[in-house]
Design goal:
By secondary structure, the protein is an alpha/beta fold. It is built from 18 helices and ten strands.
């Protein structure tokens, strides 16, 4: 659900750019992991439409309903023949092991993205490349599935932890990238199984650079806490002397696995930019070339300074989810088990915090809040956005 924020940011950028967003695509390289893979492929498929048709995607996010899209599978994580017999009654056995029944979400994604339009935009060169990252389950290695335009070269990475698979991007690649282990079923692509790429590679900046990007817009769904917020959290005892709630722990685990690496990637990007600025100023061309040869040896490509425009949420999505559950959530039509899990995710956490629910609260009203948050954060950087695209 945090991906709704990304949609709001892009919609805000399109509003700020006005006529420029109607003249042609704002972006020509798209890279995403997890829910970012869904949004990235949508925007690539709509690169021939004003503002990448962000408003339609916003409407789709807001059409989600808990009763349709948040279905808990009581036997989803239970192995054995009895499980298959029980699930055959609900025709969900084909999903594999997972807590959630994702079929309704998959239908939304398949229908929302114009897959043939995506391929046309890439083949015509309107889009230079589309890349989504997924984790190969057996090897633990990240696979970047990539589709690129004629004449675009994807330099291979000198990193055994990551490989690039050039192919036509299809729904299964996106579902694999977004498959949080245990919550969503792993996805078989070809002969191999994949799950959420965010476990190892949440911010796919390097693949975008290898596809030729020299200027980056990066949208994170991780709220950067202030020193006061960190002190407040450390002072809390969410268990009040009791054992911590499993749902509370799951939320924190998801944050650690899927969000914390983003902050590190953005810090490294900034540090490398600063270092290259100093080297370019201090070294003569022949010495700078020696430095670049080291980069090529270790990463397969030279390094260059990159102009960046970075967005991070101004609000804490865990708190936003908890407040929404307690004050605005419409519980009509949802199953008893789903209602129990959602309510516990808020009641067992301090200050209405519900990190777990901020990932899985498939509700249009909550999506609307996150979208408006992204739009507001974009408008807060309106002057910076205009300068970035004017350059």
């Amino acid at each position: 659900m945090r991906g709704a924020y990304e949609v709001g940011v892009v919609a805000g950028i399109a509003e700020i750019m006005g006529d420029r967003a109607a003249e042609g695509p704002l972006f020509d390289v798209f890279a995403g992991t997890s829910v970012g893979a869904i949004n990235a492929t949508y925007f690539a498929a709509n690169a021939d439409r004003p503002g990448h048709n962000a408003e339609r995607l916003s409407a789709l996010w807001q059409s989600l309903r808990l009763s349709d899209h948040a279905r808990v599978r009581p036997f989803g994580l239970w192995a054995g023949g009895l499980k298959r017999k029980l699930e055959r009654l609900t025709s969900s056995a084909r999903l594999g092991s997972s807590l959630l029944d994702t079929r309704a979400i998959e239908v939304v994604v398949k229908r929302a993205i114009d897959w043939e339009g995506l391929h046309r935009n890439v083949a015509s060169g309107r889009v230079h490349a589309v890349m989504v990252a997924a984790l190969h389950v057996a090897s633990g290695r990240t696979t970047v599935f990539a589709e690129h335009a004629p004449g675009v070269s994807l330099n291979s990475a000198e990193d055994e932890r990551r490989i690039t698979n050039v192919c036509r991007i299809a729904p299964d690649h996106v579902f694999a990238s977004a498959a949080i282990p245990l919550l969503f079923p792993t996805r078989k692509v070809g002969d191999h199984y994949y799950c959420d790429g965010g476990l190892r590679f949440n911010t796919p900046i390097a693949p975008a650079i290898r596809a030729g990007a020299e200027r980056l817009v990066v949208v994170s769904v991780r709220h950067t806490r202030t020193a006061r917020e960190v002190a407040r959290d450390e002072a809390q005892d969410p268990g009040e002397g009791k054992d911590l709630s499993p749902l509370f722990l799951v939320g924190k685990l998801l944050n650690a696995l899927l969000l914390d690496p983003v902050a590190y990637d953005l810090q490294m990007l900034d540090r490398l930019n600063q270092m290259m600025a100093v080297l370019e100023e201090a070294l003569p061309p022949d010495e700078l070339e020696r430095v670049q040869q080291v980069w090529i040896k270790h990463r397969g490509a030279p390094y260059r300074r990159l102009d960046t425009l970075i967005f991070t949420p101004s609000q804490d999505f865990g708190l936003a989810a908890g407040n929404y559950i307690k004050n605005r959530l419409d519980r009509s039509g949802i199953s008893t088990l789903t209602r129990y899990l959602i309510d516990r995710s808020a009641s067992d956490s301090p200050e209405a915090e519900a990190d777990w629910a901020s990932y899985l609260l498939f509700d249009g009203g909550f999506a609307a809040e996150l979208i408006e948050g992204g739009r507001a954060d974009a408008h807060a950087k309106a002057d910076e956005i205009r300068r970035f695209f004017a350059e």
